[in-house]
Design brief:
Blueprint lengths: L11 H12 L1 H15 L7 E2 L1 H5 L12 E5 L9 E7 L13 E2 L9 E15 L2 E7 L1 H8 L3 H10 L2 H13 L2 E7 L2 H5 L4 E7 L4 H6 L1 H19 L9
Parallel strand pairs: 1-2
Antiparallel strand pairs: 2-7, 3-5, 4-5, 5-6, 7-8
Pfam family, one: Rep_fac-A_C
InterPro entries: NA-bd_OB-fold, Rep_factor-A_C
């Protein structure tokens, strides 16, 4: 299928659109400015509230938009923290022993390494609201301030002291969470939010300097999160 661009269309619908554009130059200019702001974001992170996020609609949100919120996890349930052995590339579960190389049947990567992986389902909250999110391995490591190996050990040894300490830490120490629309916005004009990445507040400036280097990794993580959002959308709590 090919796309043909008609520069000077004719007909009643084309004329109506032209007339609308001529009388709504301010709306078009604002829309173009917003697109440029989203595609060329400031290195400084602008923090909004969860209530601000809830005010967004499919009309005033674009697919590439990314928004940051400063939140805590007020009531972490470790039963919703899933630690398992999986592929180091795609995260698919495996029975291969930790540290052993193998060919993953899911991503077809030869030399994949079996390693601890973590998926955390939790509710994030600020003073204005609460929202459910899913965090994968790298974001779970940021949330708990420890590597996946330690989370795996704590989970499977049922280390009550470590679990209590982790629960208290995420309850009292804020994190920065970046949210963005799922692909449902561009496919069906339905606005659903999913988690894109997690960062620590004290690393904001350092992370900003590394944004260009991390773009590819962030894109891959976003795609993984978009896929998971089909089953677990970042939804506001009622």
């Amino acid at each position: 299928m090919s796309t043909v661009i008609i520069h000077d269309p004719n007909g009643a619908r084309a004329n109506a659109l032209t007339d609308w554009a001529l009388t709504h130059q301010d709306i078009l200019a604002n829309r173009q400015a917003r697109v440029l702001d989203v595609r060329n974001p400031s290195p400084l992170r602008v923090i909004i509230t969860l209530d601000d996020l809830n005010q967004k609609t499919n009309i005033n949100t674009i697919q590439e938009e990314r928004l940051w919120v400063k939140v805590v996890v007020p009531e972490l349930d470790f039963d919703r923290v899933h630690a398992y052995i999986g592929c180091c590339n795609c995260g698919r579960r495996t029975d291969v022993p930790v540290g052993k190389a193998y060919t993953c049947t899911n991503c077809s990567q030869k030399g994949s390494m079996a390693c601890p992986r973590v998926t955390t389902n939790c509710d994030i909250s600020d003073s204005t609201g609460t929202r459910s999110v899913t965090m994968f391995t790298s974001d779970s490591e940021t949330l708990f301030r420890m590597p996946a190996e330690d989370i795996f050990r704590i989970k499977h040894t049922k280390d009550d002291i470590a679990i209590k300490a982790a629960t208290e830490m995420v309850r009292t120490k804020p994190i920065l969470v970046q949210l963005g629309p799922t692909v449902a916005l561009s496919k069906s004009n339905a606005l659903q939010w999913c988690l894109k990445k997690v960062a620590l507040e004290e690393n904001t400036e350092e992370a900003s300097e590394e944004n260009e280097e991390n773009d590819q990794a962030a894109l891959e993580a976003s795609e993984e999160n978009d896929q998971a959002a089909l089953e677990n959308t970042a939804a506001p709590k009622k």
